[in-house]
Every structure is written in structure tokens, then in C-alpha cells.
Amino acid sequence: MSVNYESRYAIGPDETKTLDTMALRKKFLIEKVFIDDAIQLVYTHYDRYIAGGAKPVRKPLTLETIDELKAPYFLERRELGIINVGGAGKVSVDGEVHELGFKEALYVGKGRQEVVFSSIDAGNPAKFYLNSAPAHHAYPTQKVTKAEAEIVELGSLETANHRTINKLLVNSVIKTCQLQMGMTELKTGSVWNTMPAHTHDRRMEVYFYFEVPDGQSVSHFMGQPEETRHIWMQNEQAVISPPWSIHAGAGTSNYTFIWGMAGENLDYDDMDKRAINELK
């Protein structure tokens, strides 16, 4: 079996306040997203979201079901978002092949029985970042490139948060049940993301940081606005953000991150913003 997974139970803000560094990382950090010739997944009980990665090098990888789903196949009651952060690759969905280049996305709807990942060049393998959420309706499989994304530019160099938001798998671009995914690219000289910070009680979120240069790191901030915590993260790692938590980061260099979220609302702007000088 090429699918490895672990399950993470949801915890609240009061319990999170008591965690030391290692416990905080164990609960929220996804340290290994990509492993050669394997699919690596984390099933979180925050909205039953799944995040992970598929890295086919020497062989194709099939997205098999996991015990937690109690389902004959992975997407029986789920939808899937894929963004390729490696070399060119292919995703076969029930026999229909979709080629994905660097930073291209694919949405796969509920009910698709076979999903197979492969790389075009083993010397430069694809790295398929995966997010999945429960689904109630079967929407079509659809590829979305950066050219087809909804693009928003925010921040400024003066406040070190000049960034481009690429909304890829969102309801303003394609139809999904609850899964929303996009990619934020920070400009050279900018390091802060999602600042000013916010929470959104009706959605949880996962951040995946990549294009972090060698020798550099990102400090991800989480927790209630009045009781924040931080997790130091390296290239190609992900972090789970509960609905009650802020989710922001500052790097020692510019970088890119993928955000994915699920919950009861598809409105991207449904958020409770908090002023920078209110954070503690």
C-alpha cells in the first residue's frame, strides 16, 4: 500500500494554551508532506479535512481509501483539490488523464473511483499537494491554471507584506462543495502573510509553505488573537489552523504558500479581522 496516514483529533483554545513547543508541533504541524513513491496524509477532525502529498518518482501512485473513511474508495463522499509544486506530472481520474505543470491545480469531484498520480520525468518528479473535504454533491473534474485564477494583489513593500493571491479552486472560479484552495506568492523583500490577521469561526484552514530558500524559515503564528503561539516551519511543511485561531506567518525571506479551507461557508471574505496592535 502506497498511502500512509495519521489521524489528529481536534482540540480547543483552552487546551492549546497549555501545550509546550513539542506538543504544539505534534498537534498542528505536518512535518513530512512528501515522501518518494508514497502518498502521505493527515486526517484532521477539524471539519474532517485531509491534507498531504503524493510524490511519484519511480512508479504511479493510486489514491487508495483509508480506514478512517469507512468507504470502498477515497472519494465516495469526498472532493479533492490538487496543486502541483514539483515537476510536470499527470493525474488520471477514472481513466481521464490531466497534465499538471508547476503551480497548476486540479479539482476532482465526489464519486470518482480511481485517482492515479505519475511524474513525466523521474529526475524532476511531480509533487502533488492534496487537500480533501467531505462533499454532498458531485461536481465536474476541472483543471485551473494560474492564468485562469482570480488574482488579487494586497499589501505593500513598506509594510513587508506585498503579495499576490491566486484564487484557484474557489467558488468564484469553479464549483465545489466546501473545499477552497489558492496560492499566495510574496514579493521580494516582503515576509508577512495574512497580516492584519483574522479568524473565521465557520471555516478551518491548512497552510502549506514552499519555495522557502535553503537556510531560511517561516514562523507561523496561531492561537486566539489575545493568546498567540508560534511554530517555526521549514520548506514544504504544512500547518493546521483551527476555526478559532489566527493564521499568519513571517519568514526570514519571501516564500509561497498554499491555503486550503473547508467549513459551512464559501464566502472568501467571511472573516473577523483583528488589528495588528490588538494581537498579544
From TrEMBL:
The keyword Cell cycle does not apply. GO terms for molecular function: 4-deoxy-L-threo-5-hexosulose-uronate ketol-isomerase activity; zinc ion binding. CDD domains: cupin_KduI_C, cupin_KduI_N. Its cofactor is Zn(2+). Keywords: Isomerase, Metal-binding, Zinc. One of its GO terms (biological process) is pectin catabolic process. InterPro entries: KduI, KduI/IolB_isomerase, KduI_N, RmlC-like_jellyroll, RmlC_Cupin_sf. Its EC number is 5.3.1.17. Pathway: Glycan metabolism; pectin degradation; 2-dehydro-3-deoxy-D-gluconate from pectin: step 4/5. It holds the Pfam family KduI. It catalyses: 5-dehydro-4-deoxy-D-glucuronate = 3-deoxy-D-glycero-2,5-hexodiulosonate. It is an enzyme of class 5 (isomerase). Binds 1 zinc ion per subunit. It comes from the Bacteria. The keyword Isomerase applies. Catalyzes the isomerization of 5-dehydro-4-deoxy-D-glucuronate to 3-deoxy-D-glycero-2,5-hexodiulosonate. Belongs to the KduI family. NCBIfam families: PRK00924.1 (NF002091). This is 4-deoxy-L-threo-5-hexosulose-uronate ketol-isomerase. It comes from Parapedobacter indicus.
